[in-house]
Fold this sequence. Notes:
It is built from eleven helices and ten strands. With about 325 residues, it is α/β, with parallel strands linked by helices. It has one domain: NADP-dependent oxidoreductase domain (TIM Barrel, Alpha-Beta Barrel), CATH 3.20.20.100. The strands form two sheets. The chain has an eight-stranded parallel barrel with strand order 3-4-5-6-7-8-9-10, surrounded by five helices. Helix 1 packs parallel to helix 10 and helix 5 runs parallel beside helix 6.
Amino acid sequence: MDYKRLGNTGLKVSEYCIGGDNFGGQTNAEESLRIMSVAFEDGVNFIDTANSYCDGLSEENVGRFIKTRRPEVVLATKGKSQVGPKPNDVGVNKKYVMRAIDDSLKRLGTDYVDLYQIHSPDLTTPIEETVEAYNDIVRSGKARYIGVSNFSGAQLIEALWAQDKNGFTKFHSVQPRYNLLYREAERELFPACLDQGVGVMVYSPQAGGFLLGKHRNFKVETRDGGRFSDDFKAVNFYKNTYWNEPAFDAMEQFLSISEKYKVSPMALALSWVRSNPAVSSCIVGARTLEQVRQNLIAWEEDVPIEAISEATTIGDHIWDTVPWKPQIT
């Protein structure tokens, strides 16, 4: 396992970060603990969760895991999502932020997190108010570093400017969705991060398992209990993003490259993401112990640069043709 600095900070994080979005949901408490234990035995030191994952159960399960090993864990969590029916039960205004960090710390069973992040932009709150609240969290000792998730390059720069203008602690990381078939971050976010020294921890590197060839016919509905099944809460996003002919064609070409170079699709997908110089760490989730073991084996596979280059060509083509590609205005 290799370790990188998170952006321009001195914090060393494993390139492989355990994603906790299933812990307490599709993955029960006991299996969650086993998954984290196996990952840490293989050299992982980084865990990412959020106050909204499994209605707070993810943080509780992560808290059980770190209880006896807090010093070795780089712990990241996020806030912003709806946690109740009241108007201020969502967002990144001061009232929500101060309550959310305390609630997360209670569930995690610790008095600080290493990285506290905004889960997604809140267009109802002035960025100046948000960055002041996050600065207060660092000053209070409840977080060592702060970051954002799902921000565009422009939104990140706006936040950094507000922090610089007021002498506040700056955001140290950003967490975007990034994989061979979803490359929006390359357009403005990654260049901004490299310029400003902001670390990047990407999620969905395998496109929710789509790149692994689990589904080979977009006309066939799936009910496998995964991210593309009807009972998955984000099913509309995953199907709207990848469930189309261009994406399926690209996936078949991707699998052909995997076969050509005799590497697993999982290894190729992970290596492709890690090859981007902006990326500090890659968040990899697992629902079962078998999945995390497969991921860790794939992580160590030797993937030829030629395979990564050929995969990039496929990604370039689909990014020019996919019907859902965001447009710059």
